[in-house]
Write a structure and sequence with these properties.
The complex is a heterodimer of chains A (295) and B (242). With 295 residues, chain A is mainly alpha-helical. Chain A is 75% helix and 2% strand. In chain A, helix 5 runs antiparallel to helix 8. Chain B contains 10 helices and 10 strands. The longest helix of chain B has 16 residues. The chains are: A mainly alpha (295), B alpha/beta (242). Chains A and B meet through helix 6 and helix 7 of A and helix 2 and helix 3 of B.
């Protein structure tokens, strides 16, 4: 039986990884709400964020802020390219939704292959943003990187909430999610909004990737697991608002971490999927589905 | 002689047709609404009325020409029309149900850009027409009654500063008194110069205000005549008034 220190430590770690899942989940929600598309290439944006940040920080030796900004911008641009080259043509030809979703999965595999050819298949990482950790509270150790993840996660959710509720473009994106025809009739360029949602969601994925890489590693293959966990977090949260998606992510992260301590690492995903099934059985619209509709 | 050229119609459709798969929902038709005119399109279910408005709004692919004030707008995408002044209130109202009344109205003014003063003026005008919307400004649209939702749908369309307002069965699902109130407001707007193209099944309500009427059946225009003549038309009278 694990000690209470081990349990608390696992909760702290779970919050950290959960916030990252939450950011990925928000990315899923942004695109889904604007278009009804579940973008399974979401995880690949996380991987690209980490890969680009590694290149700019370690190889080109740019300052952290500059490296992060360029990486986020590049991944957002890749998100826009995916929308223009893959999603838009299918959308305009009225392809069935399942075909579009399958195409996003193909995009993920394609980008992974491109990364193997250009960056290689070796895992990469870079130092935590603030050295000298971890912070010790009794027997509990908290990496400084967790504070970065916490503060950046909170900042992202705050900015997104403001964006969706207080800005003209943000309201227009929400309008598109509720009634695309009515939005177009009012002069809102629905196609442009879809492109923006891909840029935004790719940027969020990149932020998640840049934040999490120092605590683990990044490689061509991390996108898949991050994507799946982000998707589960989005479903638990109710596929609606940013705070709900973040809460779904934290819950998933904490449950996974507790499962590792209680049952061993092999049971991490078994427990995560069991939690998902339980949530879906009792709350088919997600834990915050009702709230999310109004957020 | 210069100046003798007829004024171009507010909107004119020429040979407009549309189909769903192999089914022709709208056969090539001609229709015009003059500046400041109130035109009603009548017809039974499946006559092509909604398809006509959706084709004009570019929500569905169509053939033929559409001109707005003489300008060919056939190739324009839907979201360009609101900026020109063509706004449609959809059947079922098309509200953003999870957003507040205020947010719905604000989105109606999307095409006005960042002109805060202009948007404020539009808010005042809409609130004067529908005082209830001011009271309910912070209420979520989906939680309002059918009549209030219809007021919001019309109010939101007016926020866009339309020159032509197209409405698809605004009386649908409303109590007769509420529907009459909405149509009275449309009449008031028309008297101030707003062009209106109204699609309706309830002829008595719609004819009260219209100057001209198109009667659609099976996707074709069966008759085009002044509204005051329609009651004397035996077939139409039998169809609509008995």
């Amino acid at each position: 039986m694990p000690s209470s220190v081990e349990l608390i430590q696992s909760l702290v770690n779970g919050v950290g990884i959960g916030l990252v899942y939450g950011l990925i989940a928000i990315g899923f929600c942004v695109i889904y709400n604007a278009s009804g598309i579940v973008n399974f290439a979401q995880g690949v944006f996380v991987m690209l964020g980490g890969m680009f940040a590694y290149s700019f920080l370690v190889q080109i030796k740019l300052p952290l802020a500059v490296a992060a900004a360029i990486s986020i911008a590049l991944v957002a641009a890749i998100g826009v390219l995916v929308q223009i080259l893959v999603i838009r043509p299918m959308w305009q030809r009225k392809a069935p939704m399942f075909a579009i979703i399958l195409a996003t999965l193909a995009v993920q595999l394609l980008i992974e292959q491109i990364i193997i050819l250009t960056f290689g298949d070796q895992p990469r990482t870079y130092p935590e943003f603030t050295g000298g950790g971890p912070l010790k509270i009794g027997d509990i150790a908290i990496d400084y990187q967790l504070f970065w993840i916490l503060s950046c996660g909170a900042l992202m959710v705050g900015l997104l909430t403001l964006f969706f509720n207080k800005t003209r473009i943000g309201r227009a994106l929400r309008a598109c999610s509720q009634n695309r025809e009515a939005a177009a009739l009012l002069g809102i360029p629905v196609g442009g909004m879809l492109m923006l949602s891909f840029a935004l969601s790719a940027a969020l994925g990149a932020v998640a990737g840049i934040l999490i890489t120092p605590t683990q590693y990044t490689s061509y293959s991390v996108g898949g697991p991050f994507g799946v966990n982000g998707f589960i977090a989005a479903i638990i949260g109710g596929f609606g608002s940013a705070p709900a998606a973040l809460a779904g992510g934290i819950l998933l992260g904490v449950v996974q971490s507790a499962a590792i301590v209680l049952f061993g690492a092999g049971y991490k995903n078994v427990i995560a999927l069991t939690v998902l099934l339980i949530v879906l059985l009792f709350f088919p619209r997600g834990l915050f589905g009702g709230l999310a509709k109004r957020a | 002689m210069a100046g003798s050229e007829p004024m171009p119609a507010l909107i004119e459709v020429d040979g407009l047709s549309a189909s769903y798969g192999r089914v022709a929902a709208l056969k090539p038709m001609h229709l015009r609404v003059e500046d400041g005119e109130f035109v009603t399109v009548l017809g039974p279910n499946g006559a092509g009325k909604t398809t006509l408005l959706r084709a004009i709004s570019r929500l569905i692919a169509s053939r033929g020409r559409i001109r707005f004030k003489g300008r060919d707008i056939t190739a324009l995408p839907t979201h360009h029309l609101a900026k020109l002044g063509i706004v449609m209130v959809q059947e079922g109202r098309g509200l953003f149900g999870e957003m507040t009344v205020y947010e719905n109205l604000l989105l109606g003014a999307y095409g006005l850009g960042h002109d805060g003063e202009k948007i404020e003026r539009r808010f005042e005008q809409v609130f004067q027409l529908f005082p209830k919307l001011r009271e309910r400004a912070s209420q979520v649209a989906a939680s309002m009654s059918g009549g209030e939702q219809q007021m919001l749908a019309v109010g939101r369309a007016l926020m866009a500063e339309p020159k032509l307002l197209m409405l698809d069965e605004p009386s649908l699902g409303l109590a007769p008194k509420v529907a009459e109130g909405i149509l009275d407001t449309l009449g008031e707007l028309n008297r101030k110069g707003l062009g209106i193209l109204l699609v309706e099944q309830k002829a008595p309500l719609a004819l009260k205000l219209a100057r001209r009427v198109y009667v659609l059946s099976s996707g074709s225009v069966r008759a085009e005549l002044p509204a005051h003549e329609i009651k004397s038309h035996y077939d139409l009278a039998r169809f609509y008034f008995h």
